[in-house]
User: Fold this.
Amino acid sequence: MLKHRQDGLVFLHGLALQAGIIALFLGLVATYRHHHWSGLPDGLSWTTYLLGIVLAMTWNLHALQAYAVRLCGLDVREVVRLTRQQLYRLMAALFAVGFLTQEQGGSRTFVLTFVLLAGFSLLVLNSALPRRLAAFLFRSSRMRTAVLAGAGEAGQLGEWLAEREYLGQVVVGYVPPPGAEQVSPPPLGELRDLRRTLRDEAINQVVVNRRQFTPAQMGFILAEAERAGCRVRYFVDLCEGHGGESMEVECQERYAFAAEAPEPLDNPVNGLLKRALDLAVALPVVCFVLPPLTFVVWAAQRLQSPGPVFYRQERSGLNRRHFHIFKYRTMHVCPALEARQATRGDARVYGFGGFLRKTSLDEVPQFLNVLLGEMSVSGPRPHLLEHDRQFASLVPAYYQRQFVKPGITGLAQSEGFRGEVAGRPELLRQRIAHDLRYVKRWSLVLDLRILAATARQVLRPPPTAY
Assistant:
């Protein structure tokens, strides 16, 4: 109904961007040559740049699918973000070409000029082209649609489709099931008059909520739609009942499955990529950082708080499997108060332990958990088992964060959500919302961003770190 049109629109928009940027590059080359300006790469190198541009714009075409649902409804901020991402890919390709061909001097002026013009062109095209392209593509194939459902659901679907009218979807009105309450706006007619309604309103698409009609009524609807030459679509409000937003639907033969959230890490390729990143980070840390740091911590503990160097505690990980987490001990030995979350100025924290906590260096032993496959370098932070039960009673979707391995650092922590949450339910909900966003939107790039942000926080700890 919508997907094929969205996919086609995105593909053609991407092709138009690619053609526009290639034309800009060739025009710039011709202009430099015509006026004998300096800065044009000599020999065949400009063809190499052209190949890099084609590859970068093909990459942009593939990445544009992430914007398929809202391509024609992007606000200014989203257009700027999309353009920035496209320009970064283009610059990466040009940099790679320059590095491989060892271009020097003047060619950099040419490339810089091209990048500036390309950025402006992409911004203009991303802002203005999608809706104009949609108007051209769908002006002669508009779908006059009748919704067969109760007034409430028909109204909601009508509003949703109205936001996508640029795809040629025009909701004319609705036809309720027999016996449904009559409300404003009035329906197009009764179900028994469906043939007349389809004819008089020139309907060419019927969208039906099957759950509101009996099998006999559905047979009647299908027969009348077929007689009138109408397309028949079925819809289900996936938010009805549980109030959540179903993000992903997959069809397998005769069955359709709706998930409340996508799980990118359920893909084994993504799982292998994440594991490779874990090992690439954890092995050097365990081999070269952990031993000398452990000696320093041991020496400080001997002076300030004698006791075991490490602290092991049971936590809940992937699919709620329990494991023992490793940390440097940052508090005086006091088993009776272990379950109490640390607070600012906590008397249980000894001097050097406070430094370890503030800089997150107390987490370094958890790279051993990463090597054991119990944790990842990034992911939702594992909480005490008592806190798991407590937090789950406050945030219904809490345990969804355990669809992935817990991390040494996480999206919430990288964005400053650290410290105690006891007695602060709103802060807890914000932190869990970040964890769930990580589960739903994981990517290798996101992991790298989290690690980079965490490294900055080690050097400049946020106020919430204690």
